[in-house]
């Protein structure tokens, strides 16, 4: 018997006969694309259609090939196909349901692709007809809700989520996708929560469910009441919130693991050997090669959960028993990885105990630690647009956390100590820190480390001013909590002070270049006020009296930088230019720092002269400082421990609109034909009852 080859819906015998034969389903599609009702000649037409394996490529291609007028001519048949798809979703036979779901995906994408310039209402009319739209969409959403909540096939649930993701992301700007009005009216929120609360469903579909929820929350969020925002903000079920946290943690862990693998592969490769030979001159180029696709969709989900739901804050500190967190792994347990469907998905919802030794702190890990590690990677390189967006979103999430009273309580809890191995950017002037030497400390130390790392590593020509401002704000908010609650944190504050002084030095050295693009005085004022916070309230939150002495020592040691800053802002504040007002604010803010320098410097010089010492040691300077506090006069500065709370709608709306657009495009791109393949589904439902 001659073998048969298949291509684009055509069947061709590989014998002498070259006449192409069309698949039956393709012939049936062709009947739909005529002006006649296909069921006139064949009353069982629709019943037979949904027993045929869907040819997605042909159906979408056929829709895209038609122009607007041609599409309008067959509108009744398109409406009929859409309605019969919805009816088929209620069938008992799973093959019909599978084919109906696949057909709906093709219809929605095909019609939208063809009508990109037309309004959403025209699309609704083309798919279902205005007169039947409300009832049809209600039936569609109810059917999808039933399939997602049923105990039936996981493959069907997967396809339902695919269809919903297809529906949501069919336009770049989801707020212009008016079909989503029906998804708002006929909510599937509870179905999503059910998936997240069940371990089996979560493992199979958690990723898609979380991404879908993040996108639905962003539909017209500033223009109208979005029921998904309202419902997400009041969820208090522990299993559901933990489930959502597990999905997010796993996706971020997967990113961290991929980066670590690439880093190790890179370090053991030829390039590493070459770098060692010729020194570190290629270090920047080498680092550029370590690149893993960022995951803004899952980061958006984390943001929405942290920002909208106060109860989710508790999830950040929860350990992850499902991720193999056990005290001592006795023997490796084999785990079969399950790949969730969706955009750039993680490989598994389970970390096997065999993998535990690779990461020293995974046994006591939680979502916040995983997120901090992720942030430390994506914030290294802000030149790439996706990483810049990811870095900004990481800092926005940390801002929300730093403002939350409960989050601060566990961040600063002395009984919750962790060893957090953040990724550090390779730099010529410092050695790579040994992971094993990391101390166990409260989580706030890791947040401060991350901020210090960012400050130190991003002083460059393409200066990320916005990220620096957010970074300093986070440090300030953490200090406000420490001052308010009198938390004496044992932290290497000198590293922070040194980083801040170097930042001021950088701003002064690049004054001309930076002022052409940024108001550097806003940032300089924030940095100076951080020092004022330490000077004014440091005795209430610095760990020991000697820490306060060290603060003064650093200010005196680096006095030249503060003197230069004062000269610069004085020069600009006495001119009538555009920087007069912002520069004068910095001038006033420097009053106490200058008082300290002017008070102690003569005392130090006098001490050196009396004792005939050309250069004083740190201990000798500290002795002078301690002996002369009594005669120092400082001015009380108001508002140092006050800050403006984060507000998304007023300041970040444009950023989130662009971010969601980018995520929507990425999700749609990843819902390609191959991810909608029927092979596995048909195997699962191979018996026709």
From TrEMBL:
Q: Which InterPro entries match?
A: ARM-type_fold (IPR016024), ARMD3-like (IPR039868), ARMH3_C (IPR013636)
Keyword annotations: Membrane, Transmembrane, Transmembrane helix
Quote the subcellular location field of this record: Membrane
Pfam families (alphabetical): ARMH3_C
| Top-rank taxon, per record | Eukaryota
UniProt-listed SUPFAM superfamilies: ARM repeat
Give the protein name, as stated in the record.
ARMD3 protein
Q: Please tell me the species this chain comes from.
A: Smithornis capensis
């Amino acid at each position: 018997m001659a073998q048969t080859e298949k291509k684009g819906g055509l069947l061709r015998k590989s014998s002498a006969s070259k006449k192409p034969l069309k698949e039956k389903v393709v012939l049936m599609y062709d009947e739909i694309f005529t002006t006649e009702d296909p069921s006139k000649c064949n009353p069982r037409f629709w019943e037979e259609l949904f027993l045929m394996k869907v040819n997605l490529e042909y159906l979408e291609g056929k829709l895209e090939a038609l122009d607007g007028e041609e599409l309008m001519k067959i509108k009744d048949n398109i409406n009929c196909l859409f309605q019969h798809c919805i009816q088929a979703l209620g069938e008992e036979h799973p093959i019909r349901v599978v084919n109906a779901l696949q057909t709906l995906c093709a219809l929605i994408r095909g019609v939208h692709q063809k009508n990109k310039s037309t309004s959403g209402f025209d699309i609704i009319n083309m798919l279902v007809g205005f007169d039947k739209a409300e009832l049809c969409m209600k039936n569609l959403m109810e059917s999808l809700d039933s399939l997602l909540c049923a105990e039936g096939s996981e493959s069907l649930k997967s396809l339902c989520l695919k269809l919903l993701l297809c529906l949501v992301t069919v336009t770049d700007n989801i707020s212009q996708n008016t079909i989503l009005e029906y998804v708002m009216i006929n909510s599937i929120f509870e179905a999503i929560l059910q998936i997240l609360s069940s371990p089996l469903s979560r493992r199979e579909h958690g990723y898609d469910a979380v991404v879908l929820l993040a996108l639905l929350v962003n539909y017209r969020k500033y223009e109208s009441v979005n029921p998904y925002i309202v419902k997400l903000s009041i969820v208090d079920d522990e299993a559901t919130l933990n489930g959502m946290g597990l999905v997010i943690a796993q996706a971020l862990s997967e990113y961290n693991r991929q980066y670590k693998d690439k880093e190790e592969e890179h370090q053991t490769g030829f390039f590493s050997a070459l770098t060692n030979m010729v020194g570190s001159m290629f270090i920047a180029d080498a680092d550029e090669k370590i690149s893993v696709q960022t995951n803004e969709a899952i980061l958006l989900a984390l943001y929405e959960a942290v920002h909208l739901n106060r109860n989710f804050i508790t999830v950040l500190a929860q350990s992850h028993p499902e991720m193999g967190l056990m005290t001592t792994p006795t023997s490796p347990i084999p785990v079969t990885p399950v790949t969730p469907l969706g955009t750039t998905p993680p490989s598994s919802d389970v970390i096997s105990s065999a993998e535990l030794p690779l990461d020293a702190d995974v046994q006591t890990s939680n979502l916040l630690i995983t997120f901090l590690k992720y942030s430390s990677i994506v914030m290294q390189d802000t030149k790439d647009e996706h990483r810049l967006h990811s870095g900004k979103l990481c800092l926005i999430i940390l801002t929300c956390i730093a403002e939350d009273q409960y989050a601060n309580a566990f961040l600063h809890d002395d009984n919750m100590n962790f060893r957090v191995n953040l990724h550090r950017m390779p730099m010529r002037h410092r050695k790579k820190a040994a992971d094993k030497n990391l101390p166990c400390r409260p989580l706030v130390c890791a947040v401060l480390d991350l901020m210090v790392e960012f400050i130190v590593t991003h002083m460059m020509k393409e200066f990320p001013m916005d990220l620096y401002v957010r970074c300093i704000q986070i440090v300030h908010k953490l200090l406000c909590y420490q001052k308010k609650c009198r938390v004496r944190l044992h932290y290497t504050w000198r590293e922070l002070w040194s980083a801040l002084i170097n930042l001021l030095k950088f701003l002064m050295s690049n004054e001309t270049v930076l002022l052409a693009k940024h108001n550097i005085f806003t940032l300089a004022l924030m940095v100076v006020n951080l020092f004022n916070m330490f000077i004014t309230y440091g005795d209430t939150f610095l760990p020991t009296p000697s820490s306060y002495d060290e603060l003064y020592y650093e200010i005196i040691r680096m006095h030249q930088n503060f003197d230069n800053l004062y000269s610069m802002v004085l020069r600009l504040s006495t001119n009538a230019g555009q920087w007069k007002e912002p520069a004068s604010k910095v001038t006033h803010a420097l009053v106490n720092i200058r008082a300290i320098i002017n008070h102690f410097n003569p005392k130090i010089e006098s001490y050196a002269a009396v004792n005939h010492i050309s250069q004083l040691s740190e201990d000798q300077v500290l002795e002078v400082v301690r002996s002369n506090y009594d005669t120092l006069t400082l001015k009380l500065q108001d508002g140092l421990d006050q800050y403006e709370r984060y507000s998304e709608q007023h300041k970040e709306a444009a950023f989130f609109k662009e971010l969601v657009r980018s995520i929507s495009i990425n999700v749609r791109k990843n819902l390609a034909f191959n991810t909608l393949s029927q092979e596995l589904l048909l195997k699962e439902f191979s018996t026709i009852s």
